[in-house]
Amino acid sequence: MDRGTLGWWVAGVLLVGLVVVVAAPRLLGTGSPETPRTPAGPQGSGLGAAPNVDLTSMTPREAADRLWNRVMRAAEMQDSTEILNFVPMAVSAYELARPLDADGLFHLSVLLRLGQDMDGALAAAEEVLVNDPTHLLSLAAAAEAAQEAGLREEAAGFWGRFLEAYDVELATGREEYEVHADLLPRMRGDAQAALEAR
């Protein structure tokens, strides 16, 4: 199977998965895809209604973001089974959507951490930090991955950089900061708590 064929095959698998994601709640009578619950927890993704979605018209990134939203809903509801089922699919979708912007790599880092791949989560965050060393979401993602991997000094370094950059970076008005506006103050609290606990 050549590379082009493989890409279309993977895209097809992802679209089938998305059909299941969107259609299953309606078919099983467990909810409606037109009125998804908006998560308010640390991974809040600001979901809204998405009626009449044409999955065949979605780009790889749109498909990946749809799966990210699904995983974030599961994380908010502490549904470990759903997380286990959808994290691998979401990770594959983001890999298929490469090259990724800073927000996409942040999503990928969070997904890898939820899948217990701390090395991968740290590497995804550091992809951004190589060229954008003050990117708040990536600094926090790197800190959280390092922390969960038991790398306390590395985590403290990332958290320190996060706090130093916070006010100036937030004032830049990056689109991803607006999208994750509810998340950044919580990250700031985590950074302060982590450094105070040293």
Helix coverage percent: 55-70%
- By secondary-structure content and strand pairing, the structural class works out as mainly alpha
Q: Specify the overall morphology.
A: globular
**Arithmetic mean pLDDT:** 81
Largest sheet: none
Q: Quick one: how many beta strands?
A: 0
**C-alpha termini separation:** 52 Å
Order of helices and strands: HHHHHHHHH
Unreliable stretches: 1-51
Radius of gyration: 17 Å
In DSSP terms (H or I, runs of 4 or more residues), the helix count works out at: 9
Q: Which percent band covers the strand fraction?
A: under 5%
Features:
198 residues, mainly alpha, 9 helices, 68% helix, disordered N terminus
Can you characterise this structure?
- The protein has about 200 residues and is an all-alpha fold.
- Helix content is about 70%, strand content about 0%.
- The protein is built from nine helices and no strands.
- It is globular, with a radius of gyration of 17 Å.
- The model is unreliable at about 1-50 (pLDDT under 50).
Briefly say what this structure is.
The chain has 198 residues and is mostly helical. It has nine helices and no strands.
